[in-house]
Specification:
Layout lengths: L1 E9 L5 E10 L4 E5 L6 H8 L7 E6 L2 E2 L5 H7 E4 L10 H6 L12 H13 L15 H14 L4 E5 L7 H16 L4 E5 L3 H7 L2 E6 L2 E6 L6 H8 L3 E6 L2 E6 L1
Bound molecules: adenosine-5'-triphosphate.
The site of adenosine-5'-triphosphate has 11 residues, from helix 1.
Organism: Blautia celeris
Keywords: ATP-binding, Nucleotide-binding, Translocase, Transport
InterPro entries: AAA+_ATPase, ABC_transporter-like_ATP-bd, ABC_transporter-like_CS, P-loop_NTPase
């Protein structure tokens, strides 16, 4: 269980971006964080794992205050896949190995190599393990960064628009992989995502952020016509087609 309480944040010299964010998420859930551009979604994710330090509030996971932990200890518990993916001259294998760094003592162990192999296999990356990151497509790099995050074996996985460069098949493959590990109860995931239909297809909790405030939070019922209008300013109908919810914009 992760509990966020009264989180506030402003960038230096700017207005308050996050205004008293509070919610709790049980283990194994897959949360979609939705909202218009500039609502504060990325800023909020970055506060959860101390990439930026909130002005006030707390992030408590299993009774432990995350904001009091060192970066290394945070990395053992929370992994983050950023919106922009790096483009370095490093092999896919070595990039995914970096996910094991928080656990490293004198070097990588057999166990580290085994974990990295399994993660790459699950994301269908083994065939490109020797290729350099800067020679891959944006979508391929996005998958590598997800693999690195999973290699961290975090309890919480934070994903900032992880499917933005992926083709249809890879969008489904990546979100299904995250859903599966959440379903096994191994991980709790939060994804910032703009595609409401992908969110409805894969996520089981929904948080709508507006102007730095939580305006809806809960199961898929919170994503209704009124909420879509309030948050995005468009008329959208939520249809039930063969038991599956689909958003159609008028
Ligand atoms: N480093 C920064 N310095 C100052 N202001 C920033 C910085 N990063 C973001 N902001 C501002 O904070 C606000 C929230 O930005 P944030 O990136 O969190 O929004 P978002 O909801 O993730 O948007 P998007 O959907 O476009 O990615 C925006 O007004 C943005 O201009």
């Amino acid at each position: 269980m992760i509990e966020i309480k009264d989180l506030r944040y402003h960038y230096q010299g700017g207005p308050e971006i996050l205004k008293s964010i509070s919610f709790r998420l049980e283990e194994g859930r897959f949360l979609a964080i939705l909202g218009n551009n500039g609502a504060g979604k990325s800023t909020m994710l970055k506060c959860f794992n101390k990439i930026i330090f909130p002005d006030s509030g707390s992030v408590v996971m299993d009774g432990e205050e995350i904001l009091n932990l060192s970066a290394k200890e945070v990395a053992k518990r929370i992994a983050f896949v950023a919106q922009t993916v790096p483009n370095n001259q490093i092999t896919v294998h070595d990039m995914v190995m970096l996910g094991r760094r928080p656990y490293m003592r004198w070097g990588f162990t057999q166990e580290d190599h085994k974990i990295v192999h399994e993660v790459m296999e699950s994301l269908h990356l083994l065939h490109m393990r020797g290729r350099f990151l800067n020679e891959l497509s944006g979508g391929e790099r996005q998958k590598v960064m997800l693999a690195r995050a999973l290699a961290q074996q975090p309890k919480i996985l934070l994903l900032d628009e992880p499917t933005s460069s992926l083709d249809l098949k890879n969008q489904y493959q990546v979100l299904q992989a995250v859903k599966d590990i959440c379903g096994n109860g191994q991980i709790t995931a939060m994804v910032v995502i703009h595609d409401l239909n992908l969110a409805l297809r894969f996520c089981d909790r929904f948080l709508l952020l507006q102007n730095g405030e939580v305006c809806r939070y809960g199961k898929q019922e919170v994503l209704d016509r009124k909420a879509i209008w309030e948050v995005y300013g468009v008329h959208g109908e939520v249809l039930d087609i063969q038991g599956r919810k689909i958003v159609m914009v008028d």
